[in-house]
Input
Amino acid sequence: MKRIIAFVLVGVLALVAGGFASSDHASAHEVRGVGNYQFVVGFLNEPAFAYEQSGLDLRVAFFPNGAPQGGGEESEGQGQPVEGLEDTLKAEVIAGGGAAKKELPIEAAFGDPGAYESPMIFTVPGDYSFHIFGDIQGQKIDETFDSGPETFGPMEDPKDVQFPEQLAAPATVNNASTSESGSDDTARAIAIIGIIVGIVGVAVGGIALATRRS
Output
């Protein structure tokens, strides 16, 4: 009986924790009204960490009397999900400060009407922006969503949650491999030059010896 009660308690705690996790995920998105449409934008798989699977998470809903302005999770799920936007909307991801920009293909999320995503792996921690533009049933869309304290969190550095050892970032590993490769090439070049100098030295010595004998 004690074991059964323990299992039940564990199950209840898991459901409660799942509810909190879902709430945290929702609060980590920006909610914005654009005319009759509500946009919910953030990262996939939040909290989001660099070098791990993530991407754009986009949800669009229609409100006949105009989407709520100023955002707010309390209005999520009240509108009518808008489908088929993968054909009329486009997206770009912009690294902090506009240092880099990349176009993202928008795909409809399976089994979740009105939800769209674009999986990718971010290789630098920090702030990012999503630029959503195009057309929804005749309404022009051109909105930029920036990560920040009031919107959705930045791309986190995974070393802050790594334990007991921090792993080297892939970029660092690649640079180290390139450096080692460069060192090996340099060593080979020096060895070849040494061999050539040795051969030339032997040849010169042989010529000098032959000249003396003659």
